[in-house]
Design a protein that fits this description.
Layout (H helix, E strand, L loop, with lengths): L2 H22 L4 H18 L2 H19 L11 H49 L7 H13 L3 E6 L4 E6 L7 H10 L2 E3 L5 E8 L2 E9 L13 H64 L5 H32 L7 E4 L1 H11 L9 E5 L6 E4 H17 L7 E8 L2 E8 L6 H6 L10 H4 L6 H11 L3 E7 L3 E9 L7
Parallel strand pairs: 7-9
Antiparallel strand pairs: 1-2, 1-5, 3-4, 4-5, 6-8, 9-10, 10-12, 11-12
Helix pairs in contact: 1-2, 1-3, 2-3, 2-4, 3-4, 4-5, 4-7, 5-7, 7-8, 8-13, 9-10, 10-13
């Protein structure tokens, strides 16, 4: 039995119940007529015109049979009662019609309000989409969530690709969406369970959308209205264009920053290359042109050449590592290595840098091995040792320590330099930044700590600096331990 038939029968039962109650209470025909009219209005307001018309016919029958003399017959002896019965029937039918019109208008207003709320929620969701993910996927997920549909598929004509959210089992194939994007307009599958529409922007087709299922959540079990579908396609077009514009802006900004980085890197490296090249050139010229050099003088000049060559090599290595980081080519080749072993390797390679400096290494032998890129780990420690050597007085010790916590390894390198102010600490990891006092007193490009930070971040860790003027500076690195590395 259909819902419509059940409503009609319920309306008839309601009128019959009113009749039963009125028969038990002595009432005149006028009172009975008003009671029936109220009942009919309630039926019309609750269900609709068909139910209220049926109830009106039943009420006229009951009013005639039970309350108009002669009672319990369908005869009407008084002409006035014919007029009263006709007036009742006309009044009930008109009231039913007016109530139906009011009910439909109220339903339409409620539907429009719900549509506006959903369109607002969709526009807000589109404005907040994540630029790191495909815009079409996020928009499809928002439509699916807000309109409680079965599936949503968005076809982007620019990329010739479709993205879906939900479970797709309709006729919205990629070929069908391509065809719709070309010819424009709307479409509906043969089952009447999904609708499709082209997506246009400024009169130009940019794709198509297929929405499968029927709306739930307060708007009945029905397909999207044409106006709602049109508004949704407009919002999709705006969202896709916004994402495309953001992508273009991002690429343009990345290209601009990359060019600026290259220019700055070349300037910094060229400036730093001048000093060791000048020293190498002067020493080599002295050896070649002077015939009266003693063995000690010749060895001293050769030592200068060797040391400045090492410095040039370090500068080139810095530039290469920073360029790899900047281009996104910093790929890790992880192996399980001991922290003590890696630190000793870094100290060995930094012997020229820290020459004459006491280095105190306090690293426990019981530390767990760590899964790192050994080459980059050594580069990281070397850069921090070089930094500690440059910015602390000659002869003062450099301390290296390492300790383990349940989920990480902490490595600290401390020097007894002048320390950093709060503003300097906030800038010290920026590329090419050097503290005002260091620019004249220590050679360098300002790339070292930026390289260290990027290596640490590539390993999933973080680096911090603790410094106080007159006390010294300590850089601490915390690298996470995988579950298999923990004690």
């Amino acid at each position: 039995m259909t819902t419509k038939v059940l409503r009609v029968l319920t309306g008839l039962l309601f009128v019959a119940a009113i009749t039963f109650i009125l028969e038990r209470i002595p009432v005149n025909p006028t009172t009975a007529g008003f009671a029936y009219l109220v009942a009919i209005l309630l039926v019309a307001a609750r269900w609709g015109l068909l139910e209220s018309v049926t109830a009106s016919a039943a009420a006229a029958f009951f009013l005639n049979y039970f309350f108009l003399p002669p009672v319990r017959t369908l005869n009407i002896s008084d002409t006035h009662n014919w007029v009263a019965l006709s007036a009742f029937l006309v009044t009930s039918l008109v009231a039913s019609q007016l109530s139906e019109v009011a009910r439909r208008r109220n339903a339409q207003l409620h539907q429009r309000q719900t549509e506006m709320e959903r369109l607002y929620a969709l526009s807000r969701g589109i404005m907040l989409i994540d630029s790191e993910k495909a815009a079409a996927v996020q928009i499809a997920e928002e439509i699916l969530r807000i309109y409680d549909m079965t599936s949503v598929t968005i076809y982007d004509q620019t990329d010739d690709q479709a993205w879906s959210a939900g479970i797709v089992h309709g006729t919205a194939t990629l070929d069908a969406l391509r065809e719709l994007a070309v010819r424009g307009g709307t479409g509906e599958d043969t089952s009447g369970n999904s609708c499709m529409a082209s997506i246009t922007l400024a009169g130009r087709s940019i794709g198509a959308v297929a929405i499968e299922g029927r709306m739930g959540g307060g708007m009945g079990n029905e397909l999207l209205s044409e106006s709602a579908l049109h508004a949704i396609t407009n919002l999709i077009a705006v969202g896709m264009e916004k994402a495309r514009t953001q992508e273009l802006v991002s690429h343009a900004e990345a290209a601009r920053q990359s060019e600026q980085f290259k220019s700055t890197l070349l300037d910094a490296v060229a400036h730093e290359f001048k000093t060791p090249l000048t020293s190498i050139k002067a020493a080599a010229s002295a050896i070649l042109t002077s015939k009266a050099l003693t063995n000690d003088q010749r060895d001293e000049l050769l030592t200068i050449i060797d040391q400045e060559s090492e410095r040039l090599s370090a500068l080139v290595t810095e530039a290469i590592h920073l360029a790899r980081v900047e281009s996104g080519r910093l790929h890790l080749s992880r192996t399980m290595r001991g922290v003590d072993e890696l630190v000793q390797e870094a100290l060995k390679q930094s012997s020229v840098i820290v020459s004459g400096r006491p280095v105190e290494a306090r690293i426990g032998s019981s530390l767990p091995k760590i899964n790192v890129d050994a080459e980059l780990f050594v580069v990281m420690v070397k850069q921090l040792l070089d930094n500690a050597t440059k910015y602390s007085p000659a002869g003062t010790p450099i301390r290296i320590s390492a300790e383990a916590s349940p989920d990480s390894i902490r490595i600290c390198i401390h020097n007894q330099g002048l320390g950093l102010t709060e503003s300097e600490r906030s800038m010290v990891f920026e590329r090419f930044y050097r503290t005002p006092g260091a620019r004249q007193n220590a050679p360098g490009t300002g790339m070292g700590l930026a390289i260290v930070k990027d290596i640490v971040r590539a390993h999933g860790g973080y680096i911090d600096v603790d410094s106080e003027p007159g006390v010294g500076t300590e850089f601490s690195i915390r690298l996470p331990l995988a579950k298999g590395e923990r004690n």
